[in-house]
């Protein structure tokens, strides 16, 4: 039989790649990136519709009392308006802007670096499905009894507790944030590992385009802060469902939530801002055919913003009574962040002015974003002043400032990026005329929408109506008109893209922009599923020339598909939906026992789907079926330093440590508050370990510690290719890990026998007891997961016919670190509740 040519192999695999099955089960970074982008635009439309409804409500004063027959006397009541405000804010920030930037990053980073794919293709796909299903979980609350979350997007305590927000939609929305956080941690780890481990031969970090640098900085911030916000909302969900009391306001729960939230919330603003800024540098320089202005300084400015963003969050607590020294320090940090921000503005303007432009649509969007950058920046510096912030902190002045950054800069910058890369995504050029019309209407709309809000500096935000006769009406009406103008502009954009894809001829020039930033334009439009026909590398006398090695043609590989990420994502979201349906069968909802039975059935089905995905994932590894296309075109010793798998997994484990550190921080906060002289009455936050429980805990920690050492021995055996030795060490580790799990359960049984510590009796009023039971639950889940991974490794060695020792040694090393992580959580949990 005649062997297939490369062209025949490509055509056969390309049909699979572009099929419906290929899109649903894809692990390819380009398809995953496009799915992120398209899904984020859907959420943009949803969040935009909510915004238009809010603006209609606010266009007329006291709209709830105006009798319009169409609306039966009102348009939105207070509860409906609050739900729209909350879901609009969460959708736009966490489900639109962030994923849009990450979508561009996942699509473009491997292309820019000369890589074949992201480091972990299946995990990359899992991150997308968690993102999609978390968004569905967020919006499904509108269809549950009582409606959706209505606390504002900051979800402050105690307002968001079950006592004041007894709606299932509130719990599903909080659960959505938890799932979204996990997806973001995955995406962040993917980007960081890919940047450091999958660059083309000779490709240095300083060769990277500024957009890649921006996505890298954003990934680092996200990896650091999203575990913390996920832990917060996980505590909220579990507390509401199981009746725990982790955020009792008497013991500082409200202020603890505010500090923790803004420790995430303020860096979140900058991780939404940087992708659009980095994108503008790239398309301004590429379309203007000149290097970005002071590139190294721009990289440093992005890094300074990333670091400083974590240090300025306390200016959101100016009104909470914190000590004066912290107020002054926070004011200084808030002012200093304007320095690197100003550097970026100057860099954008200098890059624009230093080139001859034809003012294509992306350039116009960069111009619009630059002016908004200055307006948002100037009005933001004023917020660093304690005196000014005291006056305007709760009104529409802050709304205008915030939206000039989020919409005027981040959205406009990324829309320019969408136009710029439209030929790369589709192989066709958009209509420049209609693109410019879109820009003109959008630029007018965004300023008509937000600039009048600066004059509403004494109108409280988040109110669903306002009285007439105070001068609010005219500015509110102008803002509402601007909202509809801005919305209209995006109808033009979508129509432009749809018409261009259907009617325009394919591009014949592979690099019509003559762009030089990274290897992005070294591929066809759209790129082939394996990216490059020849190995990319960096050479030349100054080590800056981007080249393709014509002596190393790349044979089209097999298209790698996997059902496992989708199954795991479906299992996760169905479990939360099942929990919501189950609760409908109990008080205070009490729709009947049929709902409880149906909910339990959904949970059981979700568990089966989840296990199908996870066990199948392990089975694919066992059979060496997992997508394992080397993302870079160079060989690397598996156990040499931080190889791909080790780097990614260690980053993921470090993210888990940040997750757990958040809980330990909550415990310390509550302990400090319980000792405060401002707390009245008896102190219900005491905690002690019964003697027998202490014995079980010590045995558990010692057992899992020895298991970690045995896993290290197994790793050493795998490095030396000693199959039996590696398997035997890991088997012994499994036995000790099971002993650790059993003794942990026994310790909880003993603790539960004491009324002062018992689940239910104590956790309803004792926040320390609540946190212990919550952390112990997570420790048990981690232990079960580790045991499963260890057993999978043993089966692989005992039953596997083909052993790839490089992958096997790396897997053993990762298992060792997982076991060590469980050991450390046991140690830190005990210390947190003893000291």
From TrEMBL:
GO terms for cellular component: membrane. It is found in: Membrane. GO terms for biological process: aerobic respiration; electron transport coupled proton transport; respiratory electron transport chain. The chain crosses the membrane at residues 33-53, 93-113, 125-144, 210-226, 233-257, 297-318, 324-351, 363-382, 402-422, 434-457, 469-494, 566-586, 598-619, 647-667, 687-712, 732-751, 771-794, 814-834. It is a multi-pass membrane protein. Pfam families: COX1. Keywords: Electron transport, Heme, Iron, Membrane, Metal-binding, Respiratory chain, Transmembrane, Transmembrane helix, Transport. InterPro entries: Cyt_c_oxase-like_su1_dom, Cyt_c_oxase-like_su1_sf, Cyt_C_Oxase_1, Cyt_c_Oxase_su1_BS. Residues 17-539 form the Cytochrome oxidase subunit I profile domain. One of its GO terms (molecular function) is heme binding. Belongs to the heme-copper respiratory oxidase family. This is Cytochrome c oxidase polypeptide I/III. It comes from Ferroplasma acidiphilum.
């Amino acid at each position: 039989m005649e062997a297939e040519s490369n062209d025949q192999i490509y055509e056969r695999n390309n049909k699979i790649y572009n099929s419906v099955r290929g899109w649903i089960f894809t692990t390819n970074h380009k398809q995953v990136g496009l799915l992120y982008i398209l899904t984020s635009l859907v959420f943009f439309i949803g969040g935009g519709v909510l915004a238009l409804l809010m603006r209609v409500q606010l266009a007329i004063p006291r709209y709830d009392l105006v009798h319009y027959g169409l609306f039966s006397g009102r348009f939105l009541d207070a509860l409906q308006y609050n739900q729209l405000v909350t879901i609009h804010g969460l959708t736009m920030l966490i489900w639109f802007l962030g994923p849009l930037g990450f979508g561009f990053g996942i699509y473009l980073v491997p292309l820019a670096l000369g890589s074949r794919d992201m480091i972990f293709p299946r995990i990359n796909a899992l991150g997308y499905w968690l993102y999609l299903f978390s968004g569905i979980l967020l919006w499904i609350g509108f269809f549950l009894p009582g409606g959706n979350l209505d606390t504002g997007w900051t979800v402050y305590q105690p307002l968001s507790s079950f006592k004041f927000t007894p709606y299932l939609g509130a719990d599903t929305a909080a659960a959505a944030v938890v799932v979204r956080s996990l997806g973001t941690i995955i995406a962040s780890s993917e980007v960081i590992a890919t940047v450091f481990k999958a660059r083309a031969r000779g490709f240095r970090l300083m060769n990277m385009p500024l957009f890649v640098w921006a996505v890298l900085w954003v990934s680092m911030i996200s990896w650091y802060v999203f575990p913390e916000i996920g832990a917060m909302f996980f505590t909220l969900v579990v507390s509401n469902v199981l009746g725990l009391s982790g955020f009792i306001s008497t013991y500082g729960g409200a202020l603890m939530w505010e500090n923790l939230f803004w420790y995430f919330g303020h860096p979140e603003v900058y991780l939404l801002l940087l992708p659009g800024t980095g994108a503008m540098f790239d398309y301004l320089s590429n379309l203007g055919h000149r290097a970005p202005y002071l590139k190294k300084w721009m990289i440093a400015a992005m890094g300074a913003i990333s670091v400083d963003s974590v240090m300025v969050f306390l200016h959101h607590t100016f009104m909470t009574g914190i000590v004066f020294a912290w107020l002054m320090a926070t004011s200084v940090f808030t002012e200093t962040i304007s320095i690197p921000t100003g550097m970026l503005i100057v860099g954008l303007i200098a890059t624009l002015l230093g080139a001859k432009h034809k003012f294509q649509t992306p350039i116009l969007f960069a111009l619009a974003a630059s002016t908004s950058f200055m307006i948002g920046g100037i009005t933001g510096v004023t917020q660093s002043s304690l005196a000014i912030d005291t006056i305007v902190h709760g009104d529409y002045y802050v709304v205008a400032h915030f939206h000039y950054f989020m919409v005027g800069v981040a959205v406009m910058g990324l829309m320019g990026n969408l136009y710029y890369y439209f030929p790369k995504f589709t192989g066709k050029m958009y209509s420049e005329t209609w693109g410019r019309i879109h820009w003109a209407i959008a630029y007018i709309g965004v300023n008509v929408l937000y600039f009048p809000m600066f004059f509403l500096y004494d109108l409280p935000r988040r109110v669903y109506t306002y009285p007439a006769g105070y001068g609010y009406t005219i500015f509110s009406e102008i803002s509402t008109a601007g909202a509809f103008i801005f919305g209209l502009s995006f109808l033009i954009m979508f129509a432009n893209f749809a018409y261009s894809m259907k009617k325009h001829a394919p591009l014949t020039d592979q690099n019509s922009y003559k762009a030089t930033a990274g290897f992005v334009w070294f591929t066809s439009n759209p790129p082939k599923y394996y990216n490059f026909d020849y190995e990319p590398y960096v050479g030349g006398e100054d080590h800056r020339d981007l080249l393709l090695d014509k002596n190393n043609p790349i044979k089209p590989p097999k298209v790698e598909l996997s059902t496992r990420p989708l199954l795991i994502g479906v299992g996760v979201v169905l479990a939360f939906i099942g929990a919501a349906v189950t609760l409908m069968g109990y008080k205070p909802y009490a729709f009947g026992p049929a709902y409880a039975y149906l909910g339990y059935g959904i949970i059981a089905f979700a568990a089966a789907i989840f296990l199908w995905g996870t066990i199948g994932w392990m089975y694919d590894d066992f059979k060496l079926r997992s997508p394992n296309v080397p993302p870079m075109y160079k060989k690397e010793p598996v156990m040499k330093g931080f190889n791909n798998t080790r780097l990614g997994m260690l980053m993921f484990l470090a993210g888990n440590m940040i997750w757990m550190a958040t809980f330990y921080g909550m415990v310390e906060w509550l302990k400090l508050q319980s000792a405060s002289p401002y707390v009245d009455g008896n102190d219900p936050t005491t905690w002690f370990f019964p003697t027998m429980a202490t014995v079980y805990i010590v045995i558990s920690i010692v057992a899992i510690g020895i298991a970690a050492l045995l896993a290290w021995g197994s790793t050493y055996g795998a490095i030396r290719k000693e199959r039996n030795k590696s398997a035997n060490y890991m088997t012994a580790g499994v036995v000790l890990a099971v002993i650790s799990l059993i003794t942990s359960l026994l310790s909880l049984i003993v603790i539960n026998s004491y009324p002062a510590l018992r689940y239910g009796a104590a956790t309803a009023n004792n926040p320390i007891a609540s946190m212990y039971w919550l952390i112990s639950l997570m420790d048990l889940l981690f232990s079960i997961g580790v045991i499963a991974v260890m057993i999978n490794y043993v089966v692989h060695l005992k039953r596997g016919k083909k052993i790839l020792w490089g992958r096997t040694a790396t897997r053993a090393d990762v298992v060792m670190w997982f076991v060590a992580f469980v050991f450390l959580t046991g140690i830190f949990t005990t210390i947190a509740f003893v000291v």
